[in-house]
């Protein structure tokens, strides 16, 4: 009874908050127009009838989850091209990242706001046969409505850090029934599996992290390497990367760099790549206000496939601002060493496996709880080092750049890291195909 009352109260609150979602979308849409696309879908309303039913539905909330899902989805499609995919997302970057993955028989929509009416309309409209939620996206109303409609929900590449587990336990009248109603869980690590089981999830299968199966793209990597070699010949300066930086990190990095740069006779060129595109202009203004000579990737450089010729102004620049999407592998391949964004503020870090796939040594800040297993494995392999703060990170990165033997060992360690931890995408596909074949046809009309 308590859990039913808790879910009912949650549903009332989420329904009442829907006007605030419209305000938020309008505000975000000013910086990222993608948020203004198909807004009624956020509330489970569709202009046309669904083109089919019986979808394999994949929910990837944002960019990282979409890229991770693609690693197993493409394997699944090679084995079973007849299966139609419905992609859902919550962010504009996630939605844009999935567009190149869509085949003519596939579809894409926003995940609805987790209010009963919106979710019910979503399930009735699409009538999926099987749902796969990526990593952490367990929403109480969504799981409840899918159970009523007979849609099995799997949580894939599942992770749950200690902080999130404690928060979920405080709200266990909502979280326990939601996790308990899942059809299955594919966990990244034994620690994730233990915490998920404690929340009531069905016994998780530990299959590893699919992000270790990042594909090797020799052409873009080789092109970026040519640009890096051309840079060293033209300037003689190292190139360091602040990768996927989050709000507050650029200012902290800048303060640390200003304390140290006077002591550097040959300062590096910094690549600064903010995590969120709506902050590109803000970060550019911050760097310019500090008196740094800044170039923007979008206007100063041609495509990486062009002949590597750095413009004269680049040779005098302090910072190249990476104001582009989908080029992080190239940025990693350009850099001698990278600093991992999201790890110098208590946000848990970004995906460091991308750096390993591009042979880029990386310095981690103190906060990597979102990627604890990957961080520990990278440190053990010698592909990463740990820093206490940005001052420490700058010292370590610059020292690393002066030691060719250490850099070579770190790059070899990055390759070992990928080899030792790969295979999760294939294991995920095999389990989900079995779940697909066992799933019943959707109920007529949904929930």
From TrEMBL:
Q: Which Gene3D superfamilies match?
A: 3-Deoxy-D-manno-octulosonic-acid transferase, N-terminal domain, Glycogen Phosphorylase B
Q: Which UniProt keywords apply?
A: Cell membrane, Glycosyltransferase, Lipopolysaccharide biosynthesis, Membrane, Transferase
Hey, where's the site called Transition state stabilizer on this chain? 135, 211
List of catalytic residues: 65 (proton acceptor)
Q: Cite the Pfam families for this sequence.
A: Glycos_transf_N (PF04413)
Give its E.C. classification number: 2.4.99.12
A GO cellular component annotation in the UniProt record? plasma membrane
One biological process term from GO is: lipid A biosynthetic process
Q: Taxonomically, which superkingdom?
A: Bacteria
Q: Which InterPro entries match?
A: Glycos_transf_N, Glycos_transf_N_sf, Kdotransferase
This protein's species is Tepidimonas aquatica
Pathway involvement?
Bacterial outer membrane biogenesis; LPS core biosynthesis
Q: Which residues form the 3-deoxy-D-manno-octulosonic-acid transferase N-terminal domain?
A: 38-214
Query: Where this protein primarily resides, as one coarse class?
Result: membrane
Described purpose of this protein according to its UniProt entry: Involved in lipopolysaccharide (LPS) biosynthesis. Catalyzes the transfer of 3-deoxy-D-manno-octulosonate (Kdo) residue(s) from CMP-Kdo to lipid IV(A), the tetraacyldisaccharide-1,4'-bisphosphate precursor of lipid A.
- The name this protein carries in UniProt is 3-deoxy-D-manno-octulosonic acid transferase
In the record, the note on similarity to other proteins reads:
Belongs to the glycosyltransferase group 1 family.
Localization:
Cell membrane
| Gene Ontology molecular function, alphabetical | Kdo transferase activity
Reaction(s) catalysed (UniProt annotation): lipid IVA (E. coli) + CMP-3-deoxy-beta-D-manno-octulosonate = alpha-Kdo-(2->6)-lipid IVA (E. coli) + CMP + H(+)
